[in-house]
Amino acid sequence: MVKVFSPKTLTEALDIREKEAAMPFSGGTDLMVRYRAKNGLGPKMPASVMFVNALPELRGVRLTDDGTVEIGAAVPMAVLADDPGARAAYAESGAACADALAAVPSLLSAAAFSLGAPALRNRATLGGNTANASPAGDGLCALYALDARVILTSVRGKREVLIGEFVSGPGRTALAADEIITAFRVPAAGNEMDEKDSSWHYWRKVGTRRANALTKVSLAAFARMADGRVGSFAMAFGAVGPTVVRPLEAEAVFLGHSAGEILRDTDGMIRRASGVIKPLIKPIDDQRSTAKYRKTVALNLAGEAFGRFAAYLKGNEEC
Amino acid sequence: MSETVTLFVNGEEKTVRPESGMRRLLDVLRDDLGLTGTKEGCGEGECGACSVLLNGRLVNSCLVPVAQASGSEVLTLEGLRKSEAGRLLAECFTECHGAQCGFCTPGMMMASYALLKKNPKPSEQEIREGLAGNICRCTGYDAIINAVQMAAEKGRGLW
User: Fold this and answer.
1) What is the per-residue burial (b if ≥16 Cβ within 10 Å, else e) of B14-46?
2) In 10 A of CB A219, how many CB atoms?
3) Which residues are bridge partners to B58 per DSSP?
4) Higher-confidence residue: A288 or A118?
């Protein structure tokens, strides 16, 4: 029978993780399904389990001095998604203050809201979604577009890894045997009233059903203006390869340009960016969808995102 | 020797001795405590038949290891229907024909209650979002949506 640990503090958890190599277990929405046994029986876990979702150190959300927001790995998706009442209750519980919660990027909120349904979002966490490392992970896809940094902690100390470097394949990550994912660092939602520094996002997930559906294909995109130019532009395609796909060369087409420059040559830029994206989308056939469908839809989503981005730039210019 | 787990189920303190802390809350409720109002549908968190409130929040009890719920308050259908809010919800489900075969009904009622507690005046869209994790194969959903709307209307101040 596997051992089950319920540490009360991070220090205790890190100690158990090192000595027992116990599997960090957060909301269980992936792990309970993956290791499911017969009805009436608990899951058949392959290793000892350590519950981490009650650790106060993993439940905070805080603003940092460098314009990022640090989101604890065990903050429930319902809080990130801003489900009715979820943020208010979370702030009231003292886990995080309302200001920090308001700085959660809207792209991440949108992705979290499309994940599962209320009951799953009450349990699922960003840490679990990332450790699961599915190329179809909705939270993970948003983290790629936000160039999130994963904060990993062990008895040896702390390190930060870029999300794209942390995930190495389907279900595979750079998590060391003694480490726990403790938090994520993403750009804080800025002051959207200032169009020169405003940000834009796109999120669309395609599945068989609006709720509780695993993603067939998804696209997250995020841009931030800096002094009237495109300071950052990122796209992340979900479920079209072994990991989330970032078309860096397509992103570069828009980077550094002013809204005016992009609007003068929108069609040409979109054509160039789409040309780069096309060969990067290499989906597979599986029980959820076919490669052909996924590729077609992924390119359609890219087209829609470019159109929305151009509309956003136009709106900014007219301000 | 397995460890004991104490839960506060429908307001009553219950101590169980599961053979593993990974035993599902669903099985503890149904098999150990005889609370069979909570149903097992898919066992994978997709159908919502096993919905209960854990510390006031809607969860799929098939995905919760009982040790993770240690010390928590659990509200099941049996507890809900003893309350005024639960009685009203049941009445509205009956009146609107929101229950046919009845298998999804306990989960639907738990999800409806969780929604109304957070949002006592939900729009139709908000009701659909709130019940999105609960599958019904009989009603076509409209009757259930009507039942929640009726409960919101009749139950002002109750949630």
Assistant:
1) bebebebbbbbbbbbbbeebebebbbbbbbebb
2) 26
3) B53
4) A118
More confident residue, A152 or B2: A152
Rounded CA separation B124/A245 (Å)? 37
* Spatial separation of the C-alpha atoms in residues A41 and A25, rounded to whole Å: 18
Q: Which of A2, A33, A118 sits opposite B111 (nearest CB)?
A: A118
The CB-side HSE value for A14 (13 A sphere, CA atoms) comes to 15
List CB contacts (< 8 A) between B22 and chain A: 2, 4, 42-43, 45, 49
Q: How many CB pairs under 8 A join A and B?
A: 111
Residue-wise pLDDT for B14-42, tens only, equals 999 999 999 999 999 999 999 999 999 99
Nearest-Cα distance to chain A for B153, in Å, is: 19
**Under 8 Å between Cβ of B41 and B49:** yes
Task: Read off the pTM.
Answer: 0.95
Q: Is A99 left (phi over 0), alpha (psi -120 to 50) or beta?
A: alpha
Chain B, residues 125-154, CB within 8 A of chain A, namely 126, 129-130, 132-134
Edge-to-edge strand ranges of the sheet holding A229-238: A199-206, A217-226, A229-238
Residue type, A144: Y
Q: Which residues contact A186 (CB under 8 A, 6 or more apart)?
A: A68, A69, A71, A104, A105, A108, A143, A146, A147, A148, A149
pLDDT tens figures, A126-173: 999 999 999 999 999 999 999 999 999 999 999 999 999 999 999 999
Q: Is the pLDDT of residue B1 over 50?
A: no
